[in-house]
């Protein structure tokens, strides 16, 4: 049923986006995820070095999902390039193969130089370790094993530049082919004038008066910091390099469907309504990416629809970490491009990660209302357009996220978990009904929303411990929703919405007290 809906959504997307060119992608043919069952894994492949023939996709690895006898702390080898020869993933073989390899890195635990393979904790901030220290590390933390450098460096000749995708003060973005591996990428070619800006990000790598060589070195170190945030919902940085004039270029994964901004513009231009299913998933993807950024003590500081990209499967990913700030600092510069999506405290130069929550709320407003935000005299979102959003819980989330008082904005986990609950609800509906089209699905969800909104909001605000981690809170909410959702589903069956064309009768009877 879920696959059936995905096919229907895909048809809608193709009408909205006329660029249907097929591009070689980072697909690991013949490898499937042992956790979710996905075949021919796209993106990064994680191979357990302890369990034989045990592979995970990026999403399951980052979500700490396991099966069989695999344990979280089993070191997993990350395979970025599908065409890279994969001789063995067994830990003992890898240790022997790379025992004399020097990656110029020291263990953050025992402070000794590491020779050969090394590991990185995907939970702890910037923690690299040797094999011996990894044995004593937290058993609930997943570990990435490296047998190559963390960020590969390329020559400009390794790229076959094609059409230009974007340009701005930063430079140019091109579609390109990465010659050594044969698949499409995006190449971000920086302007020379950006050397100063790039070297002054709040990661404290260099001072203003450093010379150009030191600034270039500092940018290289900053790029290393970017891979600290590993997430399936952040556009992958595949490598970097410099051309003959020392101009920096970044190699990113290619996002076939372009930006969320262009996606919404094309939908409006062609009078197509983006399905509710896709809107919810996009916002859940964005929330998941922000969770990963904030968990590593960073602030994105430039979230906007243009910096949200969609891949070939309409999965949303956050891009452009160039304005990212380190959350350990109390004051920051205000150099960023997305001023229209930033709150008042940003311009005062003293803020925290709640500015990302504000931007997240405005993106949600844009996606669900169909309009960029506008303010009244008292700096509140226009109630007229907000009232056009049919989902009560979305309106509530937008109001909470865009509060002018930063302390009133919830953490990103709050918004992610609420969206996750409703996405579960939608999936349950898909498993119980055979819809003719996505419009009928939207109608069912709108009515289920009337049934569940008060219950879920009260549950989350009163009973849920916001300090619990994402996995615990998701399990807590799933249990509550799954317990009560069948009652709502059965009631919808009683009013014959399936067999009578989803007639809107007895809607007034769909209220919370009937089910809880």
UniProtKB/TrEMBL annotation:
InterPro entries (alphabetical): Kinase-like_dom_sf, Prot_kinase_dom, Ser/Thr_kinase_AS, Ser/Thr_Kinases-Pseudokinases, Znf_ZZ, Znf_ZZ_sf
Protein name, as recorded: Protein kinase domain-containing protein
Keywords: Metal-binding, Zinc, Zinc-finger
Domain Protein kinase: 159-423
The keyword Cytoplasm belongs to this UniProt entry's keyword annotation: no
MF terms (GO), sorted A to Z: ATP binding; protein serine/threonine kinase activity; zinc ion binding
Span of domain ZZ-type: 28-84
């Amino acid at each position: 049923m879920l696959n059936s809906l995905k096919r229907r959504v895909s048809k809608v997307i193709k009408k909205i986006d006329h660029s249907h060119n097929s591009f070689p992608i980072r697909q690991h043919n013949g490898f499937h995820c042992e956790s979710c069952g996905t075949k021919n894994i796209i993106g990064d492949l994680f191979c357990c070095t302890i369990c034989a023939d045990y592979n995970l996709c990026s999403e399951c690895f980052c979500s700490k999902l396991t099966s069989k006898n695999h344990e979280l702390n089993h070191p997993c080898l990350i395979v970025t390039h599908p065409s890279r020869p994969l001789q063995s993933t067994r830990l003992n073989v890898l240790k022997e193969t790379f025992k004399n390899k020097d990656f110029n890195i020291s263990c953050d635990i025992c402070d000794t130089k590491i020779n050969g393979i090394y590991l990185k904790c995907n939970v702890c901030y910037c923690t690299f370790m040797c094999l011996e220290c990894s044995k004593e590390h937290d058993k609930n933390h997943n570990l990435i094993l490296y047998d190559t450098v963390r960020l590969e460096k390329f020559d400009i000749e390794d790229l076959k530049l094609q059409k230009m995708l974007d340009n701005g003060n930063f430079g140019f973005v091109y579609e390109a082919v990465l010659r050594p591996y044969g698949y499409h990428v995006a190449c971000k070619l920086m302007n020379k004038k950006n050397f100063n800006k790039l070297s002054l990000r709040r990661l404290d790598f260099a001072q203003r008066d450093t010379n150009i060589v030191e600034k270039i070195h500092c940018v290289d170190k900053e790029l290393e910091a970017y891979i600290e945030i590993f997430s399936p919902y952040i556009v992958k940085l595949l490598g970097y390099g410099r051309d003959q004039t020392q101009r920096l270029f970044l190699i990113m994964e290619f996002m076939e469907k372009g930006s969320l901004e262009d996606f919404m513009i094309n939908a409006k231009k062609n009078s197509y309504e983006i399905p509710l299913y896709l809107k919810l998933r996009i916002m859940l993807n964005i929330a998941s990416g922000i969770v990963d950024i904030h968990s590593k003590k960073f602030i994105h500081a430039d979230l906007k629809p243009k910096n949200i990209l969609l891949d070939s499967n309409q999965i949303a990913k956050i891009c452009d970490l160039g304005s990212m700030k380190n959350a350990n600092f109390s004051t920051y510069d205000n150099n960023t491009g997305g001023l229209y999506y930033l709150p008042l405290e940003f311009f005062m130069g003293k803020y925290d990660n709640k500015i990302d929550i504000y931007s997240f709320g405005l993106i949600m407003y844009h996606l669900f209302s169909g309009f960029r935000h506008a303010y009244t005299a008292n700096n509140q979102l226009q109630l007229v357009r907000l009232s056009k959003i049919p989902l009560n819980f979305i309106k509530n989330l937008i109001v909470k996220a865009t509060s002018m008082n930063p302390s009133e904005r919830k953490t990103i986990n709050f918004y992610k978990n609420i969206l996750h609950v409703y996405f579960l609800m939608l999936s349950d509906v898909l498993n119980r009904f055979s819809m003719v089209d996505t419009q009928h699905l939207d109608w069912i969800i709108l009515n289920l929303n009337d049934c569940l909104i008060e219950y879920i909001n009260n549950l989350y605000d009163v009973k849920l411990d916001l300090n619990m981690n994402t996995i615990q809170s998701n399990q807590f909410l799933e249990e509550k929703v799954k317990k009560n959702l069948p009652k709502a589903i059965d009631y919808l069956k009683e009013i014959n919405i399936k067999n009578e064309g989803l007639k809107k009768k007895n809607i007034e009877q769909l209220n919370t007290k009937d089910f809880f």
